[in-house]
């Protein structure tokens, strides 16, 4: 009897996105449920071939990234150096479990919609009720405003995908409900004031719009663009002063850095960090300095006046690729690119599906919806990584892998055969 395991998989697919922005470490509840299910069903997946075969590439990507984090770890910290590699390795049983007992698409979409809604409501509560300048921050830590603000925007953007794909099939109450979830998710990103996240989501939205036009129709893509404009216009108008201030600050800080090397500002220290990390990486391009060596060498170079002391307050470079390059060299860069590109290739829309059900249109729409959601995850995280080391934080690692695994599982549950090339 596999029915209980399918229920566990469905519930986890709902809980991971639904709780990720509302509760502290909210992503952990659904992840823990997947791990428990995987342990209980170990006989069902242990030693069996990974299906579909292309999912083996994802197994290799996750295992490779675990090895990358082992390389260059700060072993002076003892067993804690194993924390991040273990986060990757522990996701492998979850992957095998989800492929064996794939969740239903509806549970995953419901969890994403609730998560986007909760993201916007939490941001409103923190800023309007608690009076915080930015949501998800504490007195000693503001990184969550970036991490969770970006994730809120991602969930909001994902809500836009099924809204557009299923637009003709859904009635107005469902359309309005999902549009509201999209609005709230994007509002969470807006209130977090994460400028890098706004850019990443804009670029991802353009790519998704192009894929929607190719996969569904250019008319639907145009409707989607207009709908996003209608959603963003009132949000932008309401927050126009803060948006203008953040954009103007960024411009002023770049100008100050170029003119006088002012690196004590938010943008200035990022530019100083990137410049120093690049030069340090070139000194040890293959294997990098390691985490401990990076901290020591950075302090030495700052003492020599090669960078501003402001960067000593941060343990990472505010850029995912540069952080891997300086700490783990091209080995780290290669592992990170594999972790991005393998899911992107797995989810990239294929040729139109073969009509092997009573409703071929619905089959095509289901495949398109899940593939576009899958594509949005690595695309957005690549954009987030331009100004933030997302995978240095546990919520970045686990939510990325959770979403990739769950979308892949949901896709396999309805995976059709593709049409053969023309002429065959």
C-alpha Rg (nearest Å):
22 Å
Helix content: over 70%
Q: Structural class, please? A: mainly alpha
* Total helical segments: 17
User: Which percent range describes the beta-strand content?
Assistant: under 5%
Instruction: Label the overall shape.
Output: globular
Order of helical and strand elements: HHHHHHHHHHHHHHHHH
Query: Main β-sheet, in a few words?
Result: none
Mean pLDDT score: 89
Cα(first) to Cα(last) distance is 41 Å
Low-pLDDT windows of residues: 417-424
How many runs of DSSP E, i.e. beta strands? 0
Care to describe what's here?
By secondary structure, the protein is mostly helical. Helix content is 72%, strand content 0%. The chain has helices at 3-19, 27-40, 42-45, 55-70, 83-89, 91-100, 105-129, 143-165, 172-192, 195-215, 218-238, 240-260, 266-283, 290-303, 320-347, 360-384, 394-413. α10 (195-215) packs antiparallel against α16 (360-384).
Index terms:
single chain; disordered C terminus; 424 residues; 17 helices; mainly alpha; globular
Question: How is the secondary structure organized here?
Answer:
Layout: H1 3-19, H2 27-40, H3 42-45, H4 55-70, H5 83-89, H6 91-100, H7 105-129, H8 143-165, H9 172-192, H10 195-215, H11 218-238, H12 240-260, H13 266-283, H14 290-303, H15 320-347, H16 360-384, H17 394-413
Helix pairs in contact: 1-2, 1-7, 2-6, 4-5, 4-15, 6-17, 7-8, 7-9, 8-9, 8-10, 8-11, 8-16, 9-11, 10-11, 10-16, 12-13, 13-15, 15-16, 16-17
